[in-house]
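step 4 of 6: structure.
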Amino acid sequence: MMAAMHSTDHNPDLADHFDTLDQQRQSSRLGMWLFLVAEILFFGGLFCVYVIYRVNHPDVFTFGHRFLDKNLGTLNTLVLICSSLTMVLAVRAAQLRQRMTLILMLVLSFVFAGTFLGVQYVEYSHQRQNALLVASQQAPDTDVPAEVQFEEAVSASVEGAPDGALPEAPMVEAVDPDVSMIAPAAAGPAGLATAADSMAAEAERNVVDVGPANAKTFFSIYFLMTGLHGFQVLLGMIAMLWLLKLTFQGAFGGGYSIKVGNTALYWHMAVVIWICLFLLMYLID
Amino acid sequence: MAEGHSAVVTPMSEGASGENYLTTGKGPLSWLFTLDHKRISVMYMVAIVSSFLFGGMFALLVRTEMLTPGATIMTADTFNKMFTLHGVVMVFLFIIPGIPAALGNFVLPLMLGAKDVALPRLNLLGFWCWLTGATVCMVSIVVGAVDTGWTFYTPYSTTTGTAVAGMTLGALILGFSSILTGLNFIVTIHTMRPEGMSWFKMPIFLWSLYSTAIVQVLATPILGVTVLLLIAERTLGVGIFDPALGGDPVLYQHFFWFYAHPAVFIMILPAMGIISELVSVFSGKHIFGYRFIAWSSVAVAVFSFLGWGHHMFTSGQSPLVNVIFSALVFGVGIPSALMVFNWLATMYKGAISLAAPMLYVLAFLFLFSIGGLSGLFLGALSTNIHLHDTYFAVAHFHYLMFGGTVIAFLGGLHYWWPKMFGRMYSEFWARISAALIFVGFNLTFFTLFVMGSHGMPRRYYNYLEVFKPYQQASTVGSYLLGMGFMIMAYYLAQSLLKGEKAPENPWGGATLEWATASPPISRNFEHEMVGLDPYDINALELSSDSGGYVRKDPSSILLNQAGGE
């Protein structure tokens, strides 16, 4: 845009402060890579949170992930991989100056991205209900002694008391007829499992099982990470619209296509991050 | 955007007409939408100096409160807010953007003989991020202030009623500004160096800006995540940092310092670069140990990522981890000390000129050494137990942040002032002000070392009678500091209004920014430049008619194919 005003003695793609197109291309490309590095670190912080919470509370994740819809997750993964392919083809089209193909590929990528966000919306409305359900079942005023005991044990172990044997004694005491809400054996930690096996099994099993303490944190982490990723997808869609606008205005006719290339790079990163999220959130078993 | 483009595009003929970057384009929009790195730098300068004024007022209020034990001028709650706001404003609004965004933005393309930074629009976006972030911070100060200390430690920051979410959101946005500046500098240094300027022919200031930029790009995203999690914790009750929900408050400290420890080096590294430039020019000598200083800048950047744990020696982290962090923290002393020795060796047998910028260099060497050496006491495990969270730590980081970064910033400001605004300032008042600042600073903060080693804890509203003389001396020192800055404001304002016109090269620097007009034209240079040895002071001589220095062989820095693109 800046260069456009200077088209008398310059290549229209070359900005005033660069000497050559190659220098300009290298600058844009390096800038985008650095931006992606920053972005990786940003998500890296969140993955770090994920790892720490999961190591400390594996039960929360094994319990929580069963609420996610693997079919929708797989569908979204496929959709994003397709969009990655169409973005690559868009870059190729821009380099070969195939204007119609470029427009087609950008539109296709945009549609795929939109599909992703649509599916995500459906998934979110499910998960929001699940999260609310789990949270309400675990609300502090619900009278579930076992839960309270468990929380105390957790906070004790956080403060450095030796964990392990500690939770067991209160767990046994806590077993009374209305512990039906304790997690089933497979999901609970060792202490809970014995308790659940002995008593809770024959109690009313039709009540929703509320899982381990703080099960709702799974949903918090899920929303936080996928939400930020969704924001990234949204930005990518805006970038695609911008590229479409530029294409209609006749940009990329000269084969200088770094803007398409950089958007594609950004987009691939969004796809890679989604694949990591899919593996970490949906496919925990 | 039209005004902005004109600043970049029109200047083909301005050199002849006497136009410069300050006079091409008029009106506030020609500034707010400019893509010219020099104008963006001037806007940053105004912005951060205003922040410094704000932060300084908070500091003077804190010091005034400490004149007497118990209540002097404010309640304990207000006191908590005052020192927090002092910290937040000074760190996030002033000192982190300070040297890179204000001075670096101006000097970096000029030193490269380039027309602009590589990505001018991102540069402007960075400034807008700064403005937005600063606005959010100011609004938070008005609606509820913050009383957590600038570190926003959980669990207090998730439970206090003050505007922590707003303030940290502001810090998040300011972080983007910092990332964009760093990203731009890395790209510019990689792709825009002129012919003849290999990596090891770059001015040291560029090495230090490059190292700083790497830390900015790699560490600042972590600040983003940290405050995002903090905001989520406050507003949505996520529980990552809340033991009641299975989280861990020390995790917050790890996250925070994983950014904030490297951030210390975002502050000090560019200061080291400025000192390297100034010490050579005002000693009239080639810099000593160029490669050592260049590599030391990089080494400091690398070490900066490995020291975050030393802020948590008393948090109950494992003793083994403490030992490792302690060793790594000592490690950063090696490149830092190397640089100090190189600066001293540069001065050795030099023809030292005691102009105002050099006074700041001398102050820096003195204060930075005290700041650095006192860091060893805090980095050693056994002494840290006693000194942790006392005035000793406060004194230590003020000696580095103020005695190091701010003093170097002032040195750089006085050094590049004639280039930025084309005017000289009153050398007499500049020296008076530098002396006042030096004396005031030491009186303010050396007393804190004494009190800290006697056990005075930081952030306390009240103190024992025995500390009274020190506290009062420190407060008097802070007033002297304030006076020093008032004098500076006076003579710099006077310089802008009716200062003597500055020559192209008033100091005799051999770096490329001195080879163009003061102030520079919009496109920076009339000709394409080549990179020569940036410390070849002998290539210049004092010219009797212009009052400044000129190259003995003026054509040596011009690219041969004149007019070629």
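step 5 of 6: annotate
 - Chain A is about 70% helix and 0% strand.
 - The first helix of chain A runs from residue 21 to 56.
step 6 of 6: archive
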